[in-house]
Here is the input.
Amino acid sequence: MGGNEVTFVGTYFSKPLKFGTQDFTTGARTAFPWWKVSGTWPADDSEDVLVGEKLATRSAIQPGQVMDINGKPHLVSGVLSTGGAEDDQIIAPLSLAQALAGKPGAVRKVLVSAVTKPEDAFARRNPDSLSAADRDRWYCSAYPQSIAYQLSEAIPHSHAEQIRQVAQNEGNVLSRIKGLMLLITLAALFTSGLAVSAAMATAMFERRTEVGLMKALGAGQFTLSAIFITEAVLLACGGGLVGFVSGGWLARGLGRAIFGSAIAVEPVLLPVILGIAIGVTSIGSAAAIRRAVKYDPVRALRGEA
Amino acid sequence: MIRHGSRSAMYFRMLFRAAALRKGQAVAALTAMMVAAAAATAMLNLFVDVQAKLRREFRNFGANLVVEAKSGGLAREEISAIQAAVSGHGLAVPFAYAVARDEKDRPIVVAGTDFELVRRLNPWWAVSSWPQVSGQVLVGVRAARLLTSGNASFSLNFQGHNVRVSPMGTVRTGAGEDSRVYMSLQDFQSWTGIAPSVVEIAASGPPEEVTSLLQQLQANLPNTDVRAVRQVTEGEANVLGKTRSTLLSSAAFIVCTAALCVLATLMGWVFDRRRDFAIMKALGASDSLIAMFVAGEAAVLALAGAILGFASGSGIAAWIGRANFHAPVAPRLSVFPPVLAGCMVVTLLATLLPLQLLRRIQPAMILRGE
Here is the structure.
């Protein structure tokens, strides 16, 4: 180009692919969301190219201009800005780059964007030294290492390596956020336990004449506790059910608002939620119930307690 | 004066006797209040602090700004100017690059840098052992397969200058670094005479500070190209923004739940005392006097709840910080005024609202138990 050597990169921009029965679209537009193009992205089957920002400024290239590459005219559909090495390169559809290099069907590097599980001590083990059961577990976990291992298995004469800058740090940040959410959930549970105990204390206090009457009629402490605990458990089940439905609805709404995708509400969680509700209510109301069954019936009935 | 004194004494007597006589309910109300205040304090504290803590995690992603010489290398003054601008809130690591030839005349990229700084800039580099002294180099895992067998030293040639180096360890990153050889900047410069061409900067702080540093560098160093590493900065902004929204909305729900609980408990308390108010009214107290009395009670409750809640909430936030980020979240006094104000609003709402309803009823009806 003007007698200068420029790195020419071919890639997919937004290429529809078919794997088995699955259709999906892949390419730079989804894998590198920070790539910004002024102008338009070239189509994957076109002969148009993108020119890096710095290269474009140096050679005074505008989007929509036609430039000569190896003696053939190509339309510059846009100018690419990435903040990386691509700013000095020409990015073209893969087929064009292969034709230019005279190597149809050949690629040098495949960048994989995979959803992985944060690396732990088990992930760092060498799969060949593991027992058969452990190896299966390692192989089927979405660790960056096992995905890389499977990729090198699938593509002969290739070498797959995790991009540590992304894979390592992503795991760190995610585990921090996960821990934060867990601790906030614990704090919220603790808060609601205390709130339940305050509400139960008030409710029990209001029912002291009722307790006094039952005691005067001969109810023992055990019967009384059983009645109130059953009541609390039923309350917890009802509240848990309503809470599960409304909380699920809320989580979906939040997921959609913040992440642009709904958070799936697992029905499996319902018994867990009910269990937590029953636990929190029982612990929260234990003190109030204990105090209630100790009321002196005479004083309670006279309204003095 | 005496009359006034006895009146205020009576006021406080009524206030505290009311609490002392109904101890259980007063404690329940105070607990509910305290829990709401604690939840609000913990959430506000975390909300302010967690972003700074997460941002620090993000600095482990490496550089977020890069300064590149427009042509040739960076002058010594330029590098020291960058380091002066960055010092205190980040790291600036110079890199120099050259293409050398190995013993079989194959090209290999050799980089010169400061190992101490690189180690802190890029903690994700998997390095078997870092070079300690002059003459030792760090070899990328792919380069190592070509260059050496075992730990034998090898020689590199750059434009007729030969240098013999011994590999101290290997570096694995999964990216371009794997095919390079890294040596200390002093070794590199005395061998090739090439000045650093790139300075990678990991600037800490909120996005505005990073942007202002970027602009400051751009203005002060006209012969260089200063840019943000968008892959890092945009990803960071994205994750932080989403965490922030999630935290904010969950905080809002927790605080709302706690406030509702306080509202219910206090309303129950006021309704329960309708006989007291009816007696006061029968004895000749005006509606506004009763309202003042209840409001005073509410204010004392709110103040006590806010102080206790602030203390325990700060404790919760500190515990979460220590458990998750291994650094405590410092209690912020600036959080106290909004928490106190919130407590006041909730208690006044919870006490004056039922009072408004009771006002319409004749005291005689309440006293008869209707």
